[in-house]
Amino acid sequence: MKYTINEKPITLLVVLIGVSVITIILPKNTYFLPNFLYLWLPQAIIFSLLLILKLRLAVIAGSSIVLTISVLYYWIFIKDAMA
Q: Could you state, in order of their start, the residue ranges of all structural domains in the chain?
């Protein structure tokens, strides 16, 4: 099926927003890289599986939005639990 909308820039934008949200919410200390990998590596694995399955880029964009929201909820939960 041929789609008229180019999904590549939208997908790249949404994935970059997800990466930037993770880098913004993480503390900038010596544990930045392990924490970044802890939060973003599962997303990268899911994105690579979706690419291997050759799904549409809109599916990857949607999963990036959902995973970014879940990371934000996790951050809010940890922030409230530590207070």
A: 17-82
The structure tokens 């939960």 sit at 77
Are the CB atoms for 50 and 59 separated by under 8 Å?
yes
SS3 state of residue 3 = coil
- 54 sits in the region (left: phi over 0; alpha: psi -120 to 50; else beta) called left
Residue type, 2: K
* Tens-place pLDDT, residues 55-69: 999 999 999 999 999
> How much is the average pLDDT of 19-45?
91
> How much is the mean pLDDT over the chain?
89
